[in-house]
Structures are given as C-alpha cells and as structure tokens.
Amino acid sequence: MNSSISFPSHAASDTLPCIAVLATGGTIAGSAADPANTSGYQAGVVGVERLLSAVPALSSVARVQAEQLASVDSKDISLALWSALAQRVNTLLATDGIDGVVITHGTDTLEETAYLLHLTVKSTKPVVLTAAMRPSTSLSADGPLNLLNAVTVAASAVAHGQGVMVAFNNRIHSARDIVKTSTYTVNAFESPEVGVLGWVQDGRVEFQRKVLRPHTVDTEFVIGANWPHVEIVASYAGASRIAVDALVTAGVRGIVVAGTGNGSIHTTVQQGLADAVAHGVAVVRGSRVGSGHVMRNGAASDDALGFISAGTLNPYKARVLLMLALAAGAAGPVVLQRVFDTY
C-alpha cells in the first residue's frame, strides 16, 4: 500500500539544512537576446550565483552552498564530467555539514546522469537533479521554481533513502524511471511505467511510493578512472549490420540495441550482433518504444544468441548500467542478465 508523508517548509533560522547546489550548465543556465525565443539561446552561460539570486525564497528553505562544477550544454556531457560529478557528490555527502545535494543540469541527458548517480552515490542523503525547458532570460522561465522545489526536496527529511531524484514541474521522479517525453513543453518528463514518486508544491513535499530496486549504498558500482566502451545501435526497416561490424572492429566492450516493439531486431542486424557476442562483446536488447518492458525470450532467442534483456530500461540508461557492470567485472550473459534484473 502506498504511504503518504508530508514535510512542511522550514522557518528561516540557523538550523536550516545545508544543501550543496552543483551547477553544470544546461538550459536552466541559458540566455537569449529575445525573451520570447525559447530555442535560439546559448545554454550554460549563466553562473550559479545568478541562478540562486533569482530565487530569494531559497533562504527560507535551506542554507545553500553553491559550486559551479561545469558550464555545458548537456548534449555535450562527457564521461570525464560524469566521473567528476559523481566523485564530487560523494565527497560532499560524506561531509557532516552537508545535508543534501542539488544538481542543475540540461534536460537532454538528465535522465542518464541521474541514473548514473542513482547507481554510484554512496549515501542515503537526498540527491536531486533539476533543469528547465526555457532559458533563464525567457518569459515565464521555469528554472527558478524548479530550483526552489529541488532544494525543498533535498532539504526534506522524508527524501532520505529514496535514491537520486529529479524535481521538475512540481513532480518528484526516481532517476531510474524518468524519461524525457517532450521537446518543448515545461512538462517534459514522465515516469511512464510506474509513475512519479511524489510531488512538491509551496514548500510541501509528499512521497506516495518508495523505490524498491537497489540503489546508492546498496549497489556494488563505483566510479573508476576507465569507462568500458559501450555504444548504441538501432533496429529499423531495412537496417544493415554496418554499424555493428564497425563497432566490433573498433573494439567496443558492449552494444545496446534500440529494438522495435518488444526489443525485436532486424534479421540482418541480429546476425551482426550474434557475431559480436562471438567476439566477446556484451549485447543488450532494449526498445526504441517510449514505455513498456523488454521480455527475455529465453531459449527462443536470447539464450541461443547470448543476448541480455534491458527490462524496463531504455537504451540510454541500459548503456549506463552496462558500462558500470562491465567496469565492476561482470561478464557473460547469465551474470549480466542478473545485473539488469536487479537494478
């Protein structure tokens, strides 16, 4: 049965929680000459202090420690930045004076970064990502309210132990479930299969369910110096195996396929992937469909070909998990399938 717990906003005092805000860029830090233009802007050019100054109500919610970790458009996020971000979050959360972390991020790859942190943060303290669909200079910019809500969630006692979350458009999502579903609306994120964790509005935080799969302190994953090379290919009408063969030649450790429907794969591509498995490449079968799960086909296909089912993870999150699993030493379809069934 779902539980419902509320946490009221704090009165301003020296006893307010201390929340570290890490800025990485994105549309929330974007700027445009025309306030009516929400597409022709430059992302990541507004500094974190300016973002915070646009939200004076923060002072009644938490003591904020701000840090500009990066200033990038999230479409250009790198593995090196992922490593730096995860390490910085873990360092901050290990500090007694920090009660939670908020990360401002671009929307394009937010779901990937959030899931990466969900698997590698080693603390039960709240970590909340937020973003915006409109740049900071636009009419009705959504960034300030999203930032206020993210800090409110991170400062909430009931947010502890929920893993990494995303606060966006008054909703609280789990990092594992959230996906971007719109190119332009301020309600750009959904958790299609299981719904949101809860909501935040006017200083009130309410959770209506808990995350059941292991995360944060209950995973074996850590951020290391080296990332296994994993890429994504797609299946579609008339697809060839050119991309698969090129990736195998390039020495990739893993390939995630964005299949049609229930992770089905064009015959030509499937043969290329089967050959990739024979060369020691891990192959994960996902779906390009926006929701649902990929059922393991067992002896009919997956067992015979050595493929792994991504379950409910989309191809982009499946790539994150596969990289971390390979880095942790997981190998072979049986072990890797267990990883995907667990996380």
TrEMBL record:
The active site is at 27, 27 (o-isoaspartyl threonine intermediate), 107. It holds the Pfam family Asparaginase_C. Residues 19-210 form the L-asparaginase N-terminal domain. Keywords: Hydrolase. SMART domains: Asparaginase. One of its GO terms (biological process) is asparagine metabolic process. Residues 229-338 form the Asparaginase/glutaminase C-terminal domain. GO terms for molecular function: asparaginase activity. Substrate binds at residues 74, 107-108. SUPFAM superfamilies: Glutaminase/Asparaginase. NCBIfam families: asnASE_II. Belongs to the asparaginase 1 family. This is L-asparaginase. It comes from Paraburkholderia megapolitana. The lineage of its organism: Bacteria, Pseudomonadati, Pseudomonadota, Betaproteobacteria, Burkholderiales.
